[in-house]
Design a protein that fits this description.
By secondary structure, the protein is mainly alpha-helical. It has one domain. It contains 2 helices and no strands. The longest helix is centred in the first third of the chain and has 43 residues. It starts with a helix and ends in an 8-residue tail after the last helix.
């Protein structure tokens, strides 16, 4: 019974870790999409207000990317702490 609990907790931590990686990739995708949209807007349209909005999109994209990296590292640390609290696996005979 204790082995089942250990395995369940270990698998839950693995799922959480994978979800954290997927979330990081979503942040990266969103940040890159903002930067690419800004570059396309600057390239296609040539008015002052479009360029201002495009630079705001670049700043937002960089912010989203950095926030995603910060959040990933923070949650990864929490997952590592939780992982260390699990007892070591008992050998099965």
């Amino acid at each position: 019974m204790a082995e089942d609990t250990w395995l369940r907790d270990r698998l839950a931590l693995e799922r959480t870790s994978l979800a954290n990686e997927r979330t990081l990739l979503a942040y990266v995708r969103t940040g890159l999409a903002l930067v690419v949209a800004a570059a396309a807007a600057i390239h296609i349209l040539d008015s002052a207000w479009v360029i201002a909005i495009a630079w705001a999109c670049v700043a937002a994209g960089i912010f989203v990317l950095l926030y995603g990296l910060f959040r990933f590292r923070f949650v990864s640390g929490l997952i590592r702490k939780a992982s260390r609290r699990l007892p070591p696996a008992e050998p099965t005979d």
